[in-house]
Amino acid sequence: MRIAGPGRPHPLGVTLEAGGANVAVRAGAAERVHLCLFDDADVELRLSLSERTGDVHHAWIEGLVAGVRYGLRADGPEAAGVFDPAKLLADPFARRFDGPFRWDPRLAATKSADSAPAMPKAVTCALPPPVDPAERPATPWSKTVIYEAHVKGLTQLDPEVPEALRGTFDALAHPAAIARLKDLGVTALELLPIMAFMDEPRLLKLGLSNYWGYNTAAFLAPEPRYFGPSGSDGPRRAVAALHQAGIEVILDVVFNHTAELDA
Q1: What is d(CA 22, CA 131) in angstroms, rounded to the nearest whole number?
Q2: Cβ contacts of 99 within 8 Å, gap of 6 or more
Q3: Which has the closest alpha carbon to 262: 193, 202, 195, 196?
Q4: Going along the chain, which residue ranges are E strands?
Q5: Closest to 150 (Cα-Cα) out of 252, 6, 262, 64
Q6: Per-residue pLDDT tens over the stretch 47-93
Q7: How far apart are CA 44 and CA 32, in angstroms?
Q8: How far is CA 162 from CA 43, 151, 178, in A?
Q9: Residue 256's pLDDT band (boundaries 50, 70, 90)?
Q10: Sheet with strand 69-75: strands edge to edge
């Protein structure tokens, strides 16, 4: 894999195309942004994005395909106080990560050891096809009955769901889980945050965890801790099964409490 062209400033993130991928990262104060590719042995290949349009650094990477793990690094002026190329950064537009975000002192924003061993890697993947609008139940608000639930908590102890599926996205698609919602008259399932998140260090010091997921690390990637046998395809399959049963899906998204803050 190598830089083979300037690429485009949009869309942001890593966009797979024929023969490679366009990479675009918004980092206005950065002097350089590096795409860091990791093989199965965690050997890193660092490619500096060659072009810049306004605040966006971008390049065309030849040979980049689906399933490659990656992160970002940024160099910038010392006066900015936030740039440390020893820190591997998450692509905010990533659609999948190879594991959950877990607190490690190496992730802290201070000059220190390389944080790559402690940082989950984004995984390149093709965008799924859009959901057909005809698939959505479109229940009128006057007839809508919303059931708010936690992906894991809804099925973790359900004896009618196979043990291997309990607590996962796959369990949401299981006939037993859907039948229970239908018996209650539910027409819309509102899921507490399903986006990739990290437990706050403050909670970990108390021996606790962020069960609810209100500490988002990446808004476009599902939380790996909820993956079942279907892996990252689980959320889409669950939504399709719920839609087929006449149940809409609402996602709880929180923008004011994210994982770079220890709150």
Answers
A1: 24
A2: 120, 121, 224
A3: 202
A4: 2-5, 13-17, 20-26, 32-38, 44-48, 51-53, 56-62, 69-75, 122-123, 146-149, 188-191, 195-197, 216-222, 248-251
A5: 252
A6: 999 999 999 999 999 999 999 999 999 998 876 567 889 999 999 99
A7: 17
A8: 38, 15, 14
A9: confident
A10: 44-48, 32-38, 69-75, 122-123
11 touches 55 (CB < 8 A)? no
Q: Of the ranges 36-40, 41-45, 128-132, which one carries the lowest mean pLDDT score?
A: 128-132
Helix (H, G, I), strand (E, B) or coil at 143: helix
- Tokens (6 digits) for 238: 């669950």
Give the SS3 label for residue 72.
Answer: strand
Q: How far apart are CA 73 and CA 91, in angstroms?
A: 10
Decide if pLDDT at 2 tops 80. Answer: yes
Token pair for 110? 């201070």
Do 36 and 46 contact (CB within 8 A), yes or no? Answer: yes
Sorted by sequence, the CB contacts under 8 Å of residue 25 that are 6+ apart come out as 12, 13, 33, 49, 56, 57, 58, 72, 91
**∠ Cα 3 82 257 (to 5°):** 100
User: What Rg do the C-alpha atoms of the chain give, in angstroms?
Assistant: 20
263 has pLDDT over 60: no
